[in-house]
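Team,

Forwarding the record for the chain on the shared tracking sheet. I've put the sequence and predicted structure together so nobody has to dig through attachments.
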Amino acid sequence: QVHLAESGGGLGQAGGSLRLSCAASTPTFDLNTMAWFRQAPGKEREFVAAISWNGARTGYADSVKGRFTISRDNAKNLVYLQMNSLKTEDTAVYYCAAGSGGAFNSGFSSARKYEYWGQGTQVTVSS
């Protein structure tokens, strides 16, 4: 059983920064592709960023490229999302997701590649 717990959400200002964390309880964390997705009110869940099992490769949605950075600490079973230059359109519930190591090579931006999900953390960006 894999449990993912997000933290670090809250209220941010446009142009400011927030950092999200995701703690994973799995003995195979260092084998998992990890990702962040988000869902804004009235919209479908969308891909934000993904990172390969060893952190060597990352991928981002065009809407956050250059502003957000995904990283991981396999020794601590943590994955992070550093969000800079926030925009009001970044307001959403952010979800951490875990998939197999192969997920990064086979469509890391698809939610169907991830078997485990956290409960989500709310991020609200004010203008």
